[in-house]
Amino acid sequence: MNPSDRHERGREDLRKEILNAARDMFATGSFEEFSMRKLASKIGYSATTIYLYFTDRRDLLNRVCQETFAELNHTLEQLLATASSPLNCIRAGLRAYVEFAVAHPNHYKVVFLLDRPNNPDYRLDPTQDPGSRIYFLLRRLLSDGIDSGEIRPLELDATAQSIWASIHGLATLLILETEFPLEQRDRLIETQTDLLINGLAAQNASK
Amino acid sequence: MNPSDRHERGREDLRKEILNAARDMFATGSFEEFSMRKLASKIGYSATTIYLYFTDRRDLLNRVCQETFAELNHTLEQLLATASSPLNCIRAGLRAYVEFAVAHPNHYKVVFLLDRPNNPDYRLDPTQDPGSRIYFLLRRLLSDGIDSGEIRPLELDATAQSIWASIHGLATLLILETEFPLEQRDRLIETQTDLLINGLAAQNASK
Amino acid sequence: MNPSDRHERGREDLRKEILNAARDMFATGSFEEFSMRKLASKIGYSATTIYLYFTDRRDLLNRVCQETFAELNHTLEQLLATASSPLNCIRAGLRAYVEFAVAHPNHYKVVFLLDRPNNPDYRLDPTQDPGSRIYFLLRRLLSDGIDSGEIRPLELDATAQSIWASIHGLATLLILETEFPLEQRDRLIETQTDLLINGLAAQNASK
Amino acid sequence: MNPSDRHERGREDLRKEILNAARDMFATGSFEEFSMRKLASKIGYSATTIYLYFTDRRDLLNRVCQETFAELNHTLEQLLATASSPLNCIRAGLRAYVEFAVAHPNHYKVVFLLDRPNNPDYRLDPTQDPGSRIYFLLRRLLSDGIDSGEIRPLELDATAQSIWASIHGLATLLILETEFPLEQRDRLIETQTDLLINGLAAQNASK
DNA sequence: TATGAATGAGCATTCATTCAT
DNA sequence: TATGAATGAATGCTCATTCAT
Known about the structure:
homotetramer, mainly alpha, Tetracycline Repressor, domain 2, elongated, DNA-binding
């Protein structure tokens, strides 16, 4: 009953705990199910306590997204470093992307499946937006691939978005769809990247 | 003023009226704006009456979605009947699917993006499940296409799922993401289907 | 526990009960202490129930005032009928006014002691405002009295307001001040009206 | 940053600082806007600290009022000292009283209009009670005036209370009633005091 | 068949206050 | 002396739902 007995942690720890719990709530329930009260009771504190760490619901939500974005961005940056050829880099990147999503489903859901447009609570620094980041990354790789002849000449913007949309669909499905008899995840990822790469690839002549 | 005067219809009629009104609310407003009370007042009946026809809110929502997705299924069936080639049929089907999702974003959300895994009680009739339907449809078309040589030999299950995942990703993005400077929807759909079709297509010989 | 067992009353009855309870709450506590929840629990109903009878807090508050105003106005109308001379009428009116206030302290407090200006919830039809009513009544009586020579020539507006203010002060004190050793109420009313009448009266005789 | 660095003052000093800040908040904002937290942050101390100097919110409010009303008492004492005649002194005192009320509406409300009867625990020190003070003051002046022949023979207690009631009514009205087209405040005060003084005055001359 | 009456749980947020340190 | 951490209770209001009729 005594709070200091229950939680002998530093201020930053509790802040983190709140953020994590909030993201989990988001990801496991739907957006509408999130509430300050449920969050509070989930971490075993009173609702009031949350307001000691975040100014209000909107602030908390923003922090959750920011944190999540940062982590996702970090992963995306690393993709770029490991490139051999543009097409190989895309292939590797798509796989890494899905694997991140599957490994961090709650992060992914918060960022991409949360009805952000309708909720003005979610308005973040656009330079942080992972949607934009991966889009520009893909766009650059496509451009390189077209230049090198690996990739057939395609409209950059729409194609980059299409690729992203496709891989996002796979990520979403692997995260949300637990009942439908999905193929082994790995095999599905393989098939999907093959399909996309093949769709991009220049028709190889005499072959 | 007398309800029996107002509505001298059979049981099935009122049920339909409720469903139609609910679909309207769903189609016009946002998902969050839907409420049993508003629905009731919209059709001029008491809130209680709705519970005579549907066990609860979720049940009603499911019926609404089922009804609406039946339209999609119907459209897809027709495509199948009128298709010239498997590949063309797939192309037309993908477009129809995305257009359906964009036209009925609330339905699409309820079926694919809202707490599916958590509430197994509230699953749609599996034979009606739009995910399953399009999967089996795709699978058949792929099989046909491979047989006819239009499509390169691919593993049927994983490929059908990949295609679906891709198009689902596009649908999701078009529904949720309103801020990112998306290409014109049409053009994006075009690009996406091209990409996928191209990925499926047999490498064309001597070309 | 069963609502229909607890309260077998008609719809209008409960409405009245709510109004009465609300006025009592207002009058006994301060304005800030009023709450929909407290009101609800006071009458033994859930908070939600109140919203079946009034659209919201503001509506309820307005009805309380309206009702109270009406009763006070009714009393004031009657004063006018019983006049002999303007000065006598004023005297009788002042007494009637205080007596109404003392007899209906809660009504009086709601109307005059409730911080209305700061609360936009209290904005009523001005023709109903008893402050205006008694003011115009007084003004007319003063005018008559000055014409007849009973009352010394005084500025009508300011004097009417002064009289009202004075008697309002007495009413307020008799209602609120229960500890201070107040003279017998009757005697105080007598003194007060004497004082005011004397202040109004023309300096008599040869002067 | 270190509190002891910030405020190296004695206990009495901080107490004063709190009172001053509270009086400021009270004087500038509305009564409803006052809160312990806001007060604390205004003076740069934690909310907890206030409770080292005042038992609770009501205690603090009482002290603020007491302090402020002491000003009124002081003003009234001075009038008494410099008065030319009892009647003049009463006139000046009435004006001073109303002007004080209008200048400190929140204080006046707390002392005279807020749940006095219900909370006997929270009464002001009776020897400080402004109601009592002005009553006894008035009583003495009346007595003097009657002795000197300026004021007609009147029952002291009831008359003192009547005068007070009248002026209290004006004060209350000026504080609460902001909508009704009140005469210019000054003029109304003038009229009111005239009326009362006239009511007190001995019937003059040959009569 | 349909309803009117009613409810409990829920929402974000603010408040005065307490307690161990 | 002063604080940081925490809380319980409260606010107006809406929701899905129930129940007796």
